[in-house]
Specification:
37% of the residues lie in helices and 21% in strands. Strand 2 and strand 3 form a beta hairpin. The strands form two sheets. Strands 1, 2, 3, 7, 8, 9, 10, 11 and 12 form a nine-stranded antiparallel beta sheet that branches. Strands 4-6-5 form a three-stranded antiparallel beta sheet. The protein contains 14 helices and twelve strands. The protein has one domain (4-332): Beta-lactamase. The relative contact order is 0.20. The chain is α+β, with helices and mostly antiparallel strands. The two termini are 18 Å apart.
């Protein structure tokens, strides 16, 4: 495992811990431009592939069939925080597809916005699967099945026609053979795939590219436009994907995934950037992401990403004890 330092954690002036990982930066031709560690690190993609899991639905005219606008398309790609603005759209998507919460198979968890705000739910409050950060993706899965008369009870089975179509689309967008994508089960129970980090970066370079995609025409542009127009729906209050897309002002599309994956597409530069934290954590990943953007000359002055660049660490009494500082160094491929 060839990994490089991504970030250092200090206590006082001393480095206490180091987070390692890998980075790949590619162009729209799939050529590797910059790297840190192993740019082909085999990485489970987790939620970063949500835009491409939506491609079969869009390609079959699903958005027009059900009257899904850009807000619904954004939710297809979302790892949302379970705020009211998110759940209201997901519930609308389910109704339009003739489904309800009980058809979802993503499971239930406490909405992410509590952890982001460092608060706890009020006593007695309850949640449903609609609050799951993946419920928008699953609502799209169900809509696809309704449109095509496919069984909704088994929509997560890897052999279901929808999941087979998703696997084919993902392999195509990333430029890999389907047999080269090891399969696992995501936290929301959907099939998930491992890819070389450089291929995941390439997929986001294609997602962000200017003009029609050679294979998918305007569909990738629709996904890009929805995500960059509604970053609050793709992510949530206080989260880095929202901050990244705000910093990019419509030029950056960003999506993180569990276990330390972050991918960004830069439209104006024709770039895809993918990072993987080897320890699966966000603590080192987020400062490294900001540092990579800075080293590529992409970080604007006074960026809204400042809170993620050098997070300060405090103990339980509020005394500053150290910081997380980036250590990643890109090299030309």
């Amino acid at each position: 495992m060839n990994v490089a330092p991504l970030a250092e954690v200090t206590r006082g002036d001393q480095v206490e811990s180091i987070h390692f990982g890998a980075v790949a930066v590619v162009n729209t031709r799939g050529e590797l431009l910059y790297q840190a560690g192993d740019p082909h690190f085999l990485t489970f993609t987790r939620s970063t592939i949500k835009p491409f899991q939506a491609l079969p639905f869009l390609r079959a005219g699903g958005s027009a069939h059900f009257g899904f606008g850009s807000r619904e398309i954004a939710l297809l790609c979302a790892s949302h925080s379970g705020e009211t603005l998110h759940t209201a759209v997901v519930e609308s998507m389910l109704r339009k597809a003739g489904c309800d919460e009980h058809h979802l198979q993503c499971g239930c968890h406490v909405p992410l916005h509590y952890a982001t705000a460092n608060t706890q739910p009020a006593p007695g409050v309850s949640f449903t699967q609609v609050h799951n950060n993946c419920s928008g993706k699953h609502a799209g899965f169900l809509a696809y099945c309704r449109q095509h008369g496919q069984p909704v009870e088994t929509y997560l089975d890897p052999l279901h026609p929808l999941q087979k179509e998703i696997r084919s689309c993902l392999a195509d967008v990333c430029g890999v053979a389907e047999t080269g994508m090891p399969v696992g089960t995501d936290g929301c129970s959907a099939p998930n795939y491992a890819l070389p980090l450089s291929r995941l970066a390439y997929a986001y370079a294609r997602l962000a590219q200017i003009g029609p995609d050679p294979d998918y025409g305007e569909l990738t542009g629709q996904l890009y436009a929805a995500m960059t127009s509604h970053p609050d729906l793709v992510s949530g209050t206080g989260r880095i994907d929202l901050a990244l897309m705000k910093a990019g002002q419509g030029d950056w599309v960003a999506k993180g995934g569990a276990e330390g994956v972050q991918v960004i597409g830069i439209r104006s530069k024709g770039l895809g950037i993918a990072l993987k934290a080897a320890d699966g954590g966000a603590r080192g990943l987020q400062p490294a992401t900001v540092a990579v953007l800075s080293q590529l000359g992409l970080l604007p002055q006074g960026s809204v990403l400042a809170p993620w660049a050098h997070p300060q660490l405090f103990n339980l009494k509020g005394i500053r004890i150290g910081e997380v500082r980036p250590a990643v160094q890109l090299t030309k491929a």
